Amino acid sequence: MNIRQIEAFHAFMETGSVTHAGERLGISQPAVSKLLKGFGESCGFKLFMRSNGRLVPTLEARLVAAEVERLIAGTERIERVAAAVRNREWGQVTIAALPALASRYLPRALSPFLAEQRDLRLTLQSRASPRIAELVMAQQVDIGLSILPFDHPDVTAEAVIRFDLMCFLPSQHPLAKKTTIGVEDLRNESFISLERDDCSLMTIDRAFQMRGVQKRNRIEVPMSETACSFVANGVGVSILPPFVGMDYPSDQLVRRPLLPKTSMDIWLLTSSRRPLSLAAQQLTEFIHAALASFQQPLPAAASEQ
C-alpha cells in the first residue's frame, strides 16, 4: 500500500462518497475507485460492500479507518512542524554566553523574541569565555558569545560589537556629578573587582597601569551583576560592561563613560563543521540587533576577521 491509497481511503471514510473523496483530493472519481481497490488488495480482505449502488464500509474497514485516522493526524502534525521549521518558529537552540550577558541582559533582550516563537526551545548557559569556545568546538552548544576570539578551523568567530567599559558609581558618590570619569579620578577609591580569571580584568588593569594609578581592590566578586549590587549599596566603584546593572534605578546607581576609552569585543562563535539551524540563524540575527545599541566603531582589522 502507498500513502496515496491511504489518503483516498481516509477521504472516502470521512465523506462517505467516492465523488466527494475525489473532490477533496483533487482527482477524478475513477482515480479514487482505483486507489480504493488497490488499498483493499494490499489489506488482503474486503473493505466495502455494495448496497443500493453505494459502497458501504465493512467492520474491518472501520477498524482500519481508526488507525488511518491516527496516521493522517500524524502526517498533518509533520506538515505543521515542517512549516514551523521553515518559518523559523520551531527548533531547539543552545547558547553559551559570558556571565555579564547571560545573567540579566540576554534573558531580558530575548524575551520578546521567545514570546512570539512559542515552539522554540532555548537553553542558555553562563560560562567563562575560554569554556565557551571549547563548547562550540565540541558542538555542545549552537551559539557562543565570548569576549575572546577563537582561532580554530572548527570554529567560526565573528566580531559582533565593540563596547566601551563604563564606570559604575553609587548615585550619591561625589564623582557621580561628573559627566565622564577619568582613571585618575579613581585613585584611592574602593574598587569592586571581578575574579582574577575574568577576561576583562587584564584590560581594566592595563588602563590603570597606563595612567600610573594604583587600583585599590577592596572586594572581589565572580559576576558583573554582583559588582553592581555592591556599587548600588554604596560600598565602592567598579568598571563594567554597559549592558549590566540595567535594572537599577538612577537613584541607586549611575554609569559614566570612562576615559581613556577602554574597549572590548563580543565575538559570536559557531561551529564551522555544522551549519546553524534556521531557528538558530534567526536567533543570531536577533542577538545582533539586541546588542547593536552598545556598538562602538570596529577597526578595519576586526571587521575583516
UniProtKB/TrEMBL annotation:
User: InterPro entries this protein is in?
Assistant: LysR_HTH_N, LysR_subst-bd, NocR_PBP2, WH-like_DNA-bd_sf, WH_DNA-bd_sf
Q: Which GO terms describe its biological process?
A: positive regulation of gene expression
**Which keywords does UniProt give here?**
DNA-binding, Transcription, Transcription regulation
Q: Does the keyword DNA-binding apply?
A: yes
MF term (GO), any: sequence-specific DNA binding
Which PROSITE patterns does this one have? HTH_LYSR
Residue span, HTH lysR-type domain: 1-58
Concerning its family, UniProt says: Belongs to the LysR transcriptional regulatory family.
Protein name (record)? Transcriptional regulator
Look up and give the organism this protein is from: Microvirga lotononidis
